[in-house]
Write a structure and sequence with these properties.
Strand order of the largest sheet: 2-9-8-4-5
Family: Belongs to the NPC2 family.
CATH class: Mainly Beta
GO molecular function: sterol binding
Structural class: mainly beta
Distance between the termini: 47 Å
Radius of gyration: 17 Å
Strand content: 35-45%
Number of helices: 2
CATH architecture: Sandwich
Mean pLDDT: 86
Number of strands: 9
CATH topology: Immunoglobulin-like
Subcellular location: Secreted
Number of domains: 1
Low-confidence stretches: 1-21
Shape: globular
InterPro entries: Ig_E-set, ML_dom, ML_Npc2-like, NPC2-like
Keywords: Disulfide bond, Secreted, Signal
Length: 157
């Protein structure tokens, strides 16, 4: 086997696990801490489809870099060049209420998984967008942040 062909095969083998786990998040601006992994079931690569009238579930893995007593999820959407808050219902914005296998307060260097629910309202326009999810602590300082590219679609029959 030619060296370059072998390299490509090894590269492909190395990338397969990333596709299987589907980390669809990318870094936020401003040097905010990036999530370890963002998994949206049904989406292996962005853009992820957000179906109108349904909730999107995402599992976010991150490591705290400090002690945290409470956290709030602050989503922002950018579509057609306009950035605006993407309000979450209060029960979904309370990050601590949706941690899997742990709870607040969190100590420094704790690995956690957060189950995020994002309602996609039936009135949302069919557009491509990027959604920034910034999880902030009790002092409004970012604990973890990621951006996912998505598009709003209608339910397929």
């Amino acid at each position: 086997m030619h060296t370059s062909t072998m390299f490509r095969v090894l590269l492909l083998i190395a990338l397969v696990p990333a596709v299987v786990y589907g980390n669809v998040g990318r870094a936020c601006t401003g040097g905010r801490p990036l999530s370890t992994n963002v998994n949206i079931p049904g989406c292996t690569a962005p853009p992820c489809d957000l179906v109108r009238g349904q909730d999107v579930i995402a599992y976010i893995d991150f490591t705290t870099d400090r002690a945290v007593t409470s956290m709030t999820t602050v989503p922002t959407a950018t579509a057609l060049g306009i950035t605006a808050p993407y309000p979450l219902p209060a029960e979904f914005a309370d990050t601590c209420a949706w941690l899997e296998g742990s709870s607040c307060p969190l100590s420094a260097n704790e690995d956690v998984t957060y189950r995020l629910t994002i309602p996609v309202l039936p009135i949302y326009p069919l557009v491509s967008l990027s959604i920034e999810i910034d999880i902030v602590d009790q002092n409004d300082q970012s604990v973890t942040c990621f951006v996912v590219d998505a598009r709003v679609v209608t339910a397929s029959n």
